[in-house]
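User: Can you fold this complex?
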Amino acid sequence: FLHLRGHKTLRKHCTEKYHNITTWTSKLCLFFPISTQTCHTELHAGQYYTLPPAHMRTLFPHGLPPRFQMQMKTFNEACVMVRQPALELITCLRKADYSEPALRYVLYGEKGCGKTLSLCHVLHFCSTQGWLVLHIPDAHLWVKNCRELLPSSSRPGRFDQPIQALNWLKNFKTTNEHFLSKIKTTQRYVWTKRESTEEGRPLGELVDQGVSRVKSSSDVVGALLRELRLQAGGAAEGAFRLAVAVDGVNALWGKTTLKKEDKSEVLPEELTLIHNLRKMLRNDWCGGAILTTLSQTGSLFKPRSAYLPMELLGEEGFDNMDPFVPIPVSNYSDKEFESCYLYYLDRNWLQHPHSRTEDGKKELIFLSSRNPSILERLCAFL
Amino acid sequence: MAACRAVRAVLVKCGKSSWTSVPRPPQTDRQLLSRQICVSSAAWRKNLAAAGPEKFSEEYIKKQVEEFNIGKRHLANIMGEDPETFTQEDIDRSIAYLFPSGLFEKRARPVMKVTVQWGEDGRPFHYMFYTGKQAYYSLMHDTFGKVLALEKYQDSMRNKGLFTKDTRQMSLTGSRWLLKEELEELLVENISDHDYTRFLQLMERLLSMPYCAMEEEFVQRFRRQLEVQSSKQEIPAVQHDENGVAFSQAEGRRKTAKASIKLRDCGTGSITINGKSYLLYFPVLQDREQLMFPLHFVDMLGRFNVEASVEGGGHCAQAGALRLAVSRALLSFVSAGEMESMRQAGLLTPDPRVKERKKPGQAGARKKFTWKKR
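Assistant: Here's the predicted assembly.
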């Protein structure tokens, strides 16, 4: 069934096979902290829950959108709304069969609808379930604004990005500390004449190698991805599930703004990081899931109104990503808007007296058209 | 022939201007006249300057009046009417017929009239002549006379014991006092601001007395009707589509932008502009606020669906055009009182401001080139 292209038929099939997403039960849109993640069902839709701060520091050193980080700092807590796309994704993940090749999920929607935050929500769920989280916060950062572009030491015709690779390795280390000692390498990797990593060494050593030797960090990333791919969902003893999360996956198949010394454009395939990531996104490995988001915000050479997978991924990208499970993310529904509004009221974020009236609420609905990011920006100066 | 010439000779003045002294031979002799005609106009003008400013002496005025009468008789003969019964109106009619003028200013057209304001014995006709502004002062005098008359009437009613304060009052709503320019036109005289203020004060005093309704006719002469603005608005018709949903169409313009919309009832409050959502089309908050203004003013924010198409101009101009179009379309769903308040809020007025043209010798419409002292 995975080779079906039409997204409607695929979705229907998914929903039939996995879960019946029922209609809303009309409940009071209160928010309250839910301690355990696994309790999330449709009953909790529209309600907020708090992410414990300890988790935040380990899981999301780099993953959250900057405005949400500012809100976290202001409110001194990380409160995320439980929304339908995230719920759908979680149910799919719960019911998926992990002996089959990894399923690809693509969250798409208009600008500012909450794709990145939904992804973060799902990642939090995965980490509480004990998965290994491989989170690339924004793939667009790897295709633009790179200061140092080194020709690759291992392969001719490819380019390394040491700084980006280094940053990412550091963040990966923070996120998945406890896995690094458990997983062992399966192959010997030679970095230079004098340095190599033997077979059977813990992954932590591999990561440290990349962190200390900046020049070979991109290759280290490639090796890391390969190891994880081979070992995810493998033997029962060290079995773990791998969640590959890429935000802004359309960057992998778009254009870059990087230039070689002779001013010719660099194609995405010529970048080591991108090349390895593309290999990761192929569903030829088992024991995990691939969660991606499309993003127009950081994308290059794409019009502002583009949000559908076909538009943003392009022909090549679509062919590579296909088949996938598309999950649309839309603006707030009435219920969700109520919930967000009550949350802001409760946190005394809406200071203006008029905003507490019915009239003010209608104005807010109109001006933001129920778009989460625009609503947040509006309320910021009220 | 001679008659024509005589008429022309007399008819040198127009309207309010003063007499011009025409150098005339002492007799209306044909030969002398013929000689006069050969004189060039340059010499004629020189003569005038040499004579000095005209003096309104008695004989001078008498002479002019004689000439006028003779000319009048000649004119009557020309027109084929009886000279004895030729009145001033007939004179005016004949002059307008013989000398048709395309000038707009009536006072600049040729006129044949004796406008001297005093009679043969030297005494002025009007009893207020020596005040200088006879029409104005006579008006003030009459009005004050009326005030005194009303007071007298009031006293007489009090004596009879029939005095009541709640008499029929004049309706003054919807009309305004004459402006200073209009009053000047009425009185054919120049009035200062101070005079005008005093006139208004006296009128107000007249109106403040009970029984002023008796002088209604007199007062109404000095009042003009105000036009009711809101009655001029065109309300677009409400149509119904196949499902019975009411909708109305309207257009709006601002600078170079033109917008046309369809406003549908029983909607969710969604707005589509040129096929796109209004959030995508107007990323700037200010434009969305402009769009919100008319709907928010009449408290119908979530009720209507708007399908709009707009072209031309920039984003602000397009937002302004859409706002005007939405207000106009809303008129058909709104009561008359609300329409009036919308008009007063400025929602229904098309903005007349357009880009001012650039002038030669300047960098822009107002900006001048750098001023160098030398």
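Chain B has a mean pLDDT of 83. Chain B touches chain A through 15 residues (CB under 8 Å).
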